[in-house]
Amino acid sequence: MAKSIIVPICFIAILVWAFTTSTASNSSIFSQHTTIHGSAYSWAWLSSLTSVIGNYATLSVNQADFSRYSRVSVKWQLLYVPMLPIVFTFISFIGIAASSAGAAKYGNLQWDPMGLISQWESRACRFFAAFSFSLAALGVNISANSLSAANDLMALSPTYINIRRGQLLCALLSWALVPWKILESAGSFLNFMSAYAVFLGPIAGIMLVDFWILHRRRYDVRDLYTYGGRYHYWNGINFRAWIAFIVAITPTLPGLAQTVTPASVNIGVGVHPFQFGWFLSITVGSGVYLALSYLFPARETFVERAVRPDEVYDEMKGRDEGGEQVIDGVEVESGEKGYRGTDEVGGGSERKAGWKQRIYQMM
To answer: Taking every pair of C-alpha atoms in the chain, what is the biggest distance, in angstroms?
Structure first.
């Protein structure tokens, strides 16, 4: 709630600063011209577009982690279709305007917002801007990254991992990505987002083809979470999806290598498939997966009608009445029992058992 109020106010204030600073310095941010032309400009535009799509590519794959909990009508959810591009474009414009105004005022182009606000003279302005950016980063990582990773980890091993444990694992494993290297410069960040989009493109294409074209929106939700069910494929592996994924990302790998290590790798025009990697990977991945699915159909995965989550929940509710239930990996007990074990012991042992139970529930 605090993020949705404080962060927009701060961003709009930064935009106002950009306009007033540009006017005061007699150097309009709208009078700046491009420094590249021709085909170089076109490829740079495609590369930047792929980097921006990296943000959308994440939402396109993991949006079900949020939409399944939504109580809003589908008609209202359709508002996200036009609003998301509008909001993202407006936020991107604020970043471009602020960076350009900073270049006109201070003489150096700072794409890192923290580097830009560090040049401000007012200490209070620096504090509030840094606080809002920290709040935005914290809110985005908890909602968009941590929760999605926890859902995926829980799906891999629901016996041992729940939402809380998945989020803790995500927080620990994120250090392996050395994020300080990714944010070291604007170039490294854009390269990371481009590479991110390249690998997510075929995943989104395979999911779209499988749901809309092959199975025609008919899934058995129970078997999606049943080991050895109709979606187990061959030893738990759908080789059609893996082949489509590898074929889709292969043309982009040379360009990725040159982008990561430009000093030692130079492949010339071979870098271009990477510059529009998301469009290429989602097209190739979905096409190859569709072709393999028609050549080698997994007939056991097709059902005559869809078994929806509501039906599964109703069935589970009737089956578990009067007993314990497990929802999203968390065991739910009746309120009369309280903490397990606290009624069976007393004195210091009761306090010890209570702390153990609290730690168990946190995990």
So the answer is: 80
DSSP run (H or E) holding 331: strand 330-332
Q: Please tell me whether residue 20 adopts helix, strand or coil conformation.
A: helix
- Helix ranges (DSSP H) in 177-301: 179-182, 186-208, 221-224, 239-249, 253-260, 272-275, 277-295
Distances in whole angstroms, Cα of residue 207 to Cα of each of 4, 12, 199, 225, 245? 31, 37, 13, 17, 11
Amino acid type, 156? L
Q: Count CB neighbours of 48 within 10 A.
A: 14
Distance of CA 47 to the CA centre of its chain: 20
Q: What is the DSSP letter of 69?
A: T
Query: pTM score > 0.70 for this model?
Result: yes
Beta bridge partners of 325: 332
- Which tens digit of pLDDT belongs to each residue from 92-102? 899 988 988 88
Structure confidence by residue, pLDDT tens digits, 176-226: 888 888 877 777 777 888 888 899 999 999 999 999 999 999 999 888 878
Contact 312, 235 (CB under 8 A): no
pLDDT in tens, 315-356: 666 665 555 554 444 444 444 433 333 333 344 444 445 655
Amino acid at 358: R
H or E, element range at 330: strand 330-332
- How much is the pLDDT for 359? 57
What residue type is 167 in one-letter code? Answer: Q
DSSP string for 171-203: HHHGGGG-HHHHTTSHHHHHHHHHHHHHHHHHH
d(CA 89, CA 279): 19
Closest CA to 117 of 132, 138, 137: 132
Confidence band of 70 (pLDDT split at 50, 70, 90): confident
pLDDT number for residue 201? 93
Q: Residue 203's CB: how many other CB atoms inside 10 A?
A: 19
Contact assessment for residue 202 and residue 270, using Cβ atoms and an 8 Å cutoff: no
